[in-house]
Protein 1
Amino acid sequence: MKEEIELHVAKTPEGKKTGRQIYNELGCPKKMLCPLVDHSELAFRILMKKYGCELSYTPMLNAKLFSKDAKYRQRHFGPLDGTHALDRPLIVQFCSNNVDELIKSCDYVKDQCDMIDLNLGCPQNIAKNGNYGSFLMENWTLISELISKMHEHGLNNTCKIRIFPEMDKSLEYAQMCVDAGAEWLGVHGRLREQRGQITGLADLDYIKFINENIKVKNNTDEKQVVISNGNLLYPGDIKRILDYTKCDAVMSGEGCLYNPGLYNFDKEKDDVNTAEGLDNIKDKVFPRVDKIMKEYFDIVLSVKKESPASLKSFKSHIFKLLRPFFEREIDLRNEFGPLNKIFEEDKYDFNAFIKKVEKRIEERLDEFEDVITFNEKDSNDEVKYFNVPFYRCQPYFRVIDGVKNNARYDIMKRDLEDKEGFLHSLKNKKQKIKDDY
Ligand SMILES: Cc1cc2nc3c(=O)[nH]c(=O)nc-3n(C[C@H](O)[C@H](O)[C@H](O)COP(=O)(O)O)c2cc1C
């Protein structure tokens, strides 16, 4: 027998805009940057906006700490966040299991952003221990209370969910969030168990099913705003995913981290589906790693005073941006690894390192042709894979070597032939698991 649960349904304050109105006012953004702990900080958001991203999320902020600790607030959401010319539209994301802490935190940031998101997707142990993120998926009463209080407080609010193994339950869950007052819904098409080594593919069928069947709160004619999350590797995937799921927008995490050029094309003019088309716009959509590294570093320096990036996050970005390059140019990777004084400008000039990378690429240009080609061997009807020179940013195909429990598992295409990369990934398994959200 179905367990009776008490659900909160928000009363909409008078004059409050609907999700669709907010979406239209924000210019109908289609290409969004995911919330990313340690990675969607101000500097990276600015870089992404320069490269065609239309809306960004902050990293997840912990409402318990944010509501109480001024230092935490200062460190994670400074005065420049949301006020920099290139930092809007912006969604601030909180994790929480406590209404008072959540509302207090929202009040601190509501004038510096366009919407506030509740994190219902974090699958990490830290979320398990703190009882938030995807570990609230069993507590619909609490979720509906958190969302409805945000809504009733007059905030423009969204939530980002994961899916259940059952499609119907996933829809019911999404509907509960919307009825509680979520004006937008981000759907990450993976189960809570799909993380680390068994991340696998997101299931777009679930996202499509939720999007096609969900009813907007109060059941008006308006369509619920739904954002699809997962499986974005190449620019052409954006249209493919939007056409398939019929969602309003896509958001990407790892796709952008490894290649900030993912969104950087003109949908009317540029051909992003063929190797030839991509080759014509390769500087935009697969930027050279030395150039993007310089651009990112310049932004980091420009916002350093008000919103300093942590060394950990800076290094993690560089490792991701340069992943294919570092896998071949091991000496430069080894040189970058121990660099810990990057932000102490007088002691270490990071521009000297950038110059070394640039020089190395120039030397390699004779040897490795600068063309994008279509990789027929790895293709199937739905997904196209491309060969991109190692000195250009490109998607990262994860190495997965295990299946656990009942997690749905679709083998993702991986570059296992790249033995060096494979071994490197395995060696860094520990680090990777820690990095994986
Ligand atoms: C480094 C990293 C940090 C993440 N941090 C967050 C976060 O703060 N909040 C959140 O909701 N999801 C977070 N995620 C999950 C992403 O937002 C996204 O849902 C997930 O990576 C799947 O999308 P992708 O396949 O485009 O990467 C994180 C993912 C990564 C890789």
Protein 2
Amino acid sequence: MQTPISPSGDTLWQRCMLLLAQATDPQTLQTWFTPIRSVGVEQREDEKGETFDALVLYAPSEQFLNTLMERHFDLLKQVTDSVLGGEMEVVIDVDPEIARRQIARQALSPKAQEYTSHLSADLRFETFYESACNREALRIAEATAARPGQAPLNFLFIYGPSGVGKTHLSQAIGQRAMELHPELRVSYVSSSKFEAQFIRDSLNRGPGRGTFIGFYQQMDLLIIDDIQGLIGKVKTQQAFFDIFNHLYLLGKQIIVTCDVPPIDLKGMETRIMTRIQSAMMLRIDRPDLELRRKILQHRVAESGVELGEECVEFIAENMPDNVRQLEGAIRTLITHSKYSDQGKVDMAMTRRIVGGSVSIDQREITPNTILEAVCESYGLQPDQLRTSSRRAELALPRQVVMYLVKKLTNVSYKATAKLLNRNDHTTVMHGVKSIEGRIELEQDLKQRITEIELKLKGR
Ligand SMILES: Nc1ncnc2c1ncn2[C@@H]1O[C@H](COP(=O)(O)OP(=O)(O)OP(=O)(O)O)[C@@H](O)[C@H]1O
């Protein structure tokens, strides 16, 4: 039995929010903390039957709560400890009212949301991995899902090369918006399916004609994937415009994905292009090394297959173009391992399979190409590294050259010293050791050296 004993829950939570606003950025605050509601201070019982006071908060959904705990538990704990001074606990439950509305909606029309949304359960924020190359897009996407239809995010144009996560991110917005706002009608449609619906509708001479436009015009959040598929299809574009304009004027949320930036989207009606040019642009780039590693490690862990770190690293380094390509390689390896005699994947197999999809460049790496690549990365000239100056901005790149020459070539310490205009080969030995130690501790340096290596290998 939970008996409210104090009305001060709102005030306590407001104090927490003030601290959270100072401790985090506005987007995180809006996405992860604003949707939390304070219920009040209640008396709760622990497993031993002992009572304690708790500030009870409601999160809008189970998924939301899990992700909140995964990503922001430390911050939340720090802030609530500071406000509550250890005198009461914090309990976060899923808001029963939202859960009830969700169940009622499903009961009214079984599978109503799945039917109208066509969203895939796997394409969620929780399964969309983050790194520097997509962080900003991810934050904007989360903010859109928290408050669909709110300017300036009410029309999102997500673009980037094929296979980098545009569909995943747009569907994740739809999924999260449905969890937070179960009353919303959400629908996802690819441009090819939209075109097929349009053709079917045009051929229909019966009473149902035109219903597909009306169907999409009822949506609160509409996702149209791969809009470039409508290029040159004048009549389908007109239908799209009718839907778009209707939703836009009503302040609904529209998300469009495209594999080229608007400037390269030739063959679309001018009135559509002028709308697109006013959209909030969200660019997703090719996955960087960190993201490629992260995705591969997750896929390997999910599969339960034994795949050494060396193999993961090899795939991550040699398949930089898109996530779909990475997923294809890992799926192939996993399947091979299931049918192989040893039941596991080794480097030879990894090389064979990756080599079948991409060309693994065998470009020669020499001390001079290393010197040039390091200088390019640090914005220096090779001659600057050959001077006697020991200034830190020269000493570090110089040691990086020493380290990479040792790692990637068979050149002696003496020859490396000569390359850098040093008399003593022990300077090179010391430089190599220094970098070996630092990359264990300095993530940025490690990342930079990896990028230089990839560049040298032609990636
Ligand atoms: N950051 C990410 N974290 C996890 N999985 C990702 C990520 N980015 C992409 N993927 C996965 O990569 C695959 C391709 O992504 P998606 O279909 O969203 O690409 P796309 O950019 O829409 O491609 P296209 O332009 O060809 O339609 C999907 O399986 C998706 O789940």
